[in-house]
Amino acid sequence: MARVAIIGGGIIGSSIAYQLSKGTEYEVILVDGGNPNTVSQKSFAWINAWATEPQVYHDFRRDACALWHTFIEELGGDESFAYKQKALKWADDEKSAKYLQDSVVRLQEHGHDIREISAEDLYEMEPKLQPESVQFAALASDERVVDSGRVASRCLEIAEENGVSLVLGKVSDISRKASGGYTIITSEGITNCDLLVLAAGTGTPILASKLGIDVPMVDSPGILARASPPESVLQSTGMVQWYSSLPDKGVVSYHLKHDANGDLVFGEGDGLFVNGEVTDAFVERQHAQWAECSNHLKGLDIKVDPLWFRPVPLDGLPIVGFSPEADNVYLAVTHSGITVAPLIAKLAAQEIKSRTNSEPNLDPFRIERFHSGFPSLRINL
pTM to 2 decimals? Predict the structure, then answer.
């Protein structure tokens, strides 16, 4: 029986391992599985298809969002895996209101379940939030946040029950064997495989380069902060987004949700970074913004998570499929991995089983698009 090794224990790698474990075509090994430092563990974990351009990527994200309910059911999960559905959004000035209103119209044209609501509706849905200025508000019923760590762990648990082997060591090297296949050197020893899946997030380009594969990606720092409130703040929705305009940045958004433990998680569309380090201005802004919105958010001890980097390919779109530069090496790296994981894993497993790039829905996301003469798409993050 041929052996497949998947490098990467985040939600993409663990979801692919779960899908492959349903069959008997391969012996499957997941390398670096269970790593608590994956981006999947640190993400805000917002499932959405907010970006509407390019159309093919928007449609892909829509299809992925639609799979999440079934995906959680397959994993034997309950609603705690997905928290509360729905996202509440509002804008506090004319410029941000126009941006949000235009976005809602655009999403409605694409068939999203999102609608304008009144300020009174907002206050009724989330009585502990009382923003002074609500120029425009909307409710997105088809968005949700998930416990991505629990989902990835459950994928690994089922995969292991189905016979997948987990190698928890850190990967230090990969090489091609003269007889075919690949050797993976980890802190736990040596693993050999016939087919290699690189789903290592931001670590993918370095690993791929060892096999002569260029995976073009950009640095995309992420930042979140957390606080432990004395009681739950959000009552009816999974998350809220507050849009505002700043003179030096244009329209920005501030995000707020509860995690599985009830702690508040704060994020924003554009954090403040100086030479790759988080500045105190981020925490100061979170304090100022949310205290202005609710007495329940005043005086919280907000602590910033360590800076992390998101796996973002050069054009912002996923890279999925067999590489033309190395035999039997499958690439799976993407931003918004939480949103698209169920669909990428389902389609990737089919291609890995057939050893061909056979799924048309993945064709726009092949690495060949970075080669001359291949159609180019781009998303603005």
Answer: 0.92
